UniProtKB/TrEMBL annotation:
Transmembrane segments: none annotated. Signal peptide: none annotated. It comes from Neoaquamicrobium microcysteis. Belongs to the UPF0434 family. This is UPF0434 protein FY036_13915.
Length: 71
């Protein structure tokens, strides 16, 4: 499976993305297909999406480096 097909296979439903918010800041999230993460720029965290399921636990989130916030 090529990278584009893989990203589509693990994409987050756009309607679900509209409803989700960062559990810490309540700000909207951005989908980052290349890493399969939902990004909260305001909290500087990236929440993983595993098998199409967003893991919205701050304890599971990855801190974002400053250079990642600009993407």
């Amino acid at each position: 499976m090529d990278e584009t097909a893989l990203a589509k296979a693990h994409a987050v439903d756009p309607k679900l993305l509209e409803m989700l918010a960062c559990p810490l800041t309540k700000a909207p999230l951005k989908w980052r297909p290349e890493t399969s993460e939902l990004v909260s720029p305001s909290a500087k965290l990236a929440y993983p999406v595993r098998d199409g399921v967003p893991i919205m636990l701050p304890s599971e989130a990855r801190p974002l480096a400053e250079d990642e916030l600009d993407r």
